[in-house]
Design goal:
One of its GO terms (biological process) is carbohydrate metabolic process. By secondary structure, this protein is α/β, with parallel strands linked by helices. The protein is built from 27 helices and 20 strands. It has 3 domains: 193 residues, Rossmann fold; 179 residues, Rossmann fold (3-Layer(aba) Sandwich), CATH 3.40.50; 360 residues, Alpha/alpha barrel (Glycosyltransferase), CATH 1.50.10.10. The strands form 5 sheets. It has a 7-stranded parallel β-sheet, with helices on both faces. Strands 10-9-8-11-12-13 form a 6-stranded parallel β-sheet, with helices on both faces. Helix 23 packs parallel to helix 25 and helix 25 packs parallel to helix 27.
């Protein structure tokens, strides 16, 4: 979708490098939506391929404003590729799924629609599909062609993963819908029932094919589809002697090639066993074998040829049968076992149900219809009328509506988003100890207590507030400083991190990163505190605690300490401790980069994690303050590379998600964290100051607008009115919890935008005196 933010900043997806552009469809109406359709596809011969091709053809015909990129599963690399296919996924190649996900993300589609069936995707129970699913950023729709009430452990894992990831789930039976909700915990609102589509044809009582095939007026039974034990053909063949006794001219046409998986395992042994059974029963001459896979139009002609369609399937849990849907839509008299799809489709006397495995019941039902033309015609009429509800034009209208439910509306973001957020959102998390870490919804969660990470950020925020602030916030700065001071453990020469709500420290030494953040906050306070007394305290503690990171090798801990040192050195240019931290840290980061960078990976590590932009920012600030051009250039170059990785095809900000933290050269889009937006804005602000280039402003604005819905789900995480920010963006939308890290990141991102990115005079609230500061 196209974001209603400055067009120069959020280009239309048609400008993406992968996939068709608007010019490709110049003869069609302008595209309003574009999707990636994933599944088997023609010329592959299976039910899923037929269904996916039907969806493509009918949706393209009925809704030409929807662009469709087909990502086709291919069983063998040598198999042919249809011209309508945008990308092929090799079913047994994990790298092919990852490459397809990358192509989908770069194409900027509005949604991804997967046709799921066990047995078509590679890996145990089709686990390779998850390699694609976890990497795609667009909203996901999954059609389940099979819904197992009693899955294996691996099948359950795959189903749970898809249900948790998808924005919308589609099934073709009410039973499947109930199983998804009751067994897999799917939200009822997320599951949509859309029946299997069927062709639109006038009712044909006597097919002209009878004359062409020389069948004449013989009564014809038929079963269609890929042959295998799941068809129950043995049961139907055993019914033939009783039928032939009264109708010797009966012809049972079994139409369809043997399933390719069965061919690979045993050749035609199964078909030959059925033929032998028919000969033993003396009905070999009553069976016509058509060992072909039929394209849809010929399949429909063949179904019209029969008087009675048999579906003797033994698997009563089967939730979908395309040929059963076709038979009903074409007005055939249907006799079926009561499998799930048949029970629902044939209800209200649309067809006849017989017990599973009961050949005599099949024979009795067939004889009853053959010997009562009025009964047979009435059944055919009810079937044909029922089929009007599943005609493809109606079904694809429902599919288009499903796409609309999954596809986000373009956010409308105005300049009012430059208004300073209310500080009440921060105040709600604070008490006389510090700031509580987490929230359950918007209510602070006391069970998880406090951490120095958040207190450090809170102290940075208070010292970043522009203009005159209320005495309440001056007092909070002292409270946050006291927490940091109390966290120091002289025995360890380091800060503790976690404190329980009852004020007990939960460790002797915090992580390296938490120590780096504490030093950063002290350096920032020393440089920016309004009170000389507080600034002096902070500088003393900065010097005292610098030893906590002296031997640290965590890149982020080093970068955090460097940012604190940069603040001190900017205010006190001769500070030796700050110079040493900044110089040694920059040399270390540059060494890391030289070891990890490669042609397509200009970074300090083989992975991306959290607070990524801080590494580039620290190196850039060091190069600027210490006047080392190589460090400055490396900071700018790595930041530019990072920002490119964090920019979606739509132009929106897409930080690496927490699911991808620590995965070598592998970027996953969820869950996206507010911390990354703040880090990117601050780093781009430093880059803009170091070298005026408008791209830094654009990157920063993308990260800022991410808070307000210019993101992969079109949902606002933050509110300037409440000053709160939700904890992240997930595949299903925002994480509704409101924690200190997220809320502080939002406020600090605003302060960075105001101080570093927006031109002076562009903000809406000159002076920034918050009304809520007096409360």
């Amino acid at each position: 979708m196209k974001y209603d933010v400055e067009d120069r900043f959020f280009p239309h997806y048609a400008d993406a490098e992968v996939g068709p552009t608007l010019s490709s469809f110049s003869s069609s109406p302008p595209l309003t939506r574009r999707i990636a359709l994933v599944g088997c596809f023609r010329p592959r011969r299976c039910g899923i391929a037929t269904y996916t091709a039907d969806i493509f053809d009918h949706l393209t015909c009925e809704h030409p404003d929807i662009g469709i990129d087909v990502y086709a599963l291919r069983a063998h690399p040598a198999d042919p590729r249809d011209t309508d296919v945008a990308c092929v996924i090799e079913a047994e190649d994990p790298a092919s799924y990852r490459a397809a996900a990358h192509a989908i993300n770069r194409s900027g589609v509005d949604a991804v629609w997967i046709q799921h069936e066990f047995g078509i995707f590679g890996g145990i129970a089709g686990a390779m599909l998850l390699d694609l699913v976890e990497r795609i950023a667009a909203p996901l729709i999954v059609t389940f062609h099979t819904v197992l009430a009693s899955p294996s452990a691996e099948q359950r894992r795959i189903m749970d993963g898809l249900v948790a990831r998808a924005s919308r789930l589609m099934v073709m039976s009410d039973y499947g819908r109930q199983v998804l909700i009751e067994t897999y915990g799917a939200s009822a609102d997320a599951v949509t029932l859309i029946e299997h589509g069927t062709p639109v044809r006038p009712f044909c009582e006597k097919s002209p094919l009878r004359t062409e095939l020389g069948i004449g007026d013989r009564p014809i039974l038929s079963t269609f589809g890929l042959l295998g034990p799941g068809k129950g053909l043995e049961t139907a063949i055993r019914a033939l002697p009783a039928i032939a006794e009264r109708h010797p001219d009966i012809l049972y046409r079994i139409v369809g090639a043997t399933h390719p998986n069965l061919i690979a395992a045993e050749g035609e042994a199964y078909r030959e066993s059925l033929q032998a059974l028919a000969e033993d029963l003396g009905v070999g001459a009553n069976i016509g074998w058509d060992n072909r896979f039929l394209e849809t139009e010929e399949l429909l002609d063949q179904i019209e040829l029969c008087d009675i369609y048999l579906a003797p399937y033994p698997n009563l849990a089967q939730v979908t049968s395309g040929t059963l849907s076709y038979a009903v839509a074409l007005g055939r008299a249907v006799i079926s076992t009561p499998f799930v799809h048949a029970r629902e489709l044939l209800s209200n006397d649309v067809g006849l149900l017989v017990p599973q495995g009961d050949s005599m019941a099949i024979a009795d039902a067939v004889l009853g219809l053959l010997e009562s033309a009025d009964k047979r015609r009435a059944l055919q009429r009810r079937a044909y009328e029922r089929g009007r509800r599943t005609a493809w034009p109606q079904i694809v209208d429902q599919c288009a509506a499903l796409l609309d439910m999954a596809i986000m509306e373009p956010p409308r973001i105005s300049a009012t988003r430059r208004t300073a957020p209310s500080l009440s959102g921060v105040a709600d998390m604070c008490d006389d100890v510090g700031i509580l870490q987490h929230g359950r919804g918007v209510v602070p969660d006391r069970d998880h207590g406090y951490c120095i990470d958040d207190v450090a950020r809170a102290l940075i925020l208070v010292n970043s507030l522009g203009g005159q602030i209320a005495s309440e916030w001056e007092s909070r700065a002292i409270c946050f400083a006291a927490f940091i001071q109390h966290a120091w453990n002289p025995d360890e020469g380091a800060f503790r991190n976690f404190m329980s709500y009852d004020r007990r420290w939960l460790e002797d030494r915090g992580s390296d990163d938490s120590n780096g953040r504490a030093i950063w906050a002290l350096g920032h306070c020393a440089a920016r505190a309004r009170s000389n007394e507080l600034a002096g305290w902070a500088r003393d503690w900065f010097d005292r605690s610098a030893c906590a990171v002296a031997e640290v090798r965590s890149p982020r801990a080093v970068a955090f300490a460097m940012l604190g040192a940069a603040e001190v050195l900017g205010r006190f240019p001769s500070d030796a401790a700050a110079s040493e931290i900044l110089g040694c840290g920059a040399a270390y980061l540059e060494k890391l980069r030289s070891h990890s960078a490669r042609d397509d990976w200009d970074w300090f590590e083989p992975t991306l994690a959290y607070d990524n932009a801080r590494l580039s920012e620290a190196l850039l600030r060091a190069g600027t303050l210490l006047k080392v051009a190589a460090w400055k250039e490396a900071g700018l170059k790595t930041l530019g590379w990072l920002c490119e990785q964090q920019t979606a095809a739509t132009g929106c900000f897409r930080p690496v998600g927490s699911e991808g933290f620590g995965r070598s050269h592998d970027l996953l889009p969820f869950d996206q964290q507010p911390l990354e937006a703040w880090a990117t804005i601050a780093a781009c602000g430093a880059a803009l100051a170091a070298r005026h280039d408008e791209r830094w402003r654009r990157y920063a604005e993308a990260a800022w607008y991410w808070f307000f819905g210019a993101n992969d789900r079109g949902e606002a995480l933050a509110s300037t009115e409440t000053g709160r920010c939700h904890d992240g963006l997930t595949p299903r939308g925002i994480n509704r919890n409101v924690g200190a890290e997220s809320t502080l990141a939002f406020h600090l991102a605003y302060q960075a935008m105001d101080a570093l990115i927006w031109p002076r005079g562009a903000r809406k609230d000159v002076g920034f005196v918050h009304a809520d500061m007096q409360t």
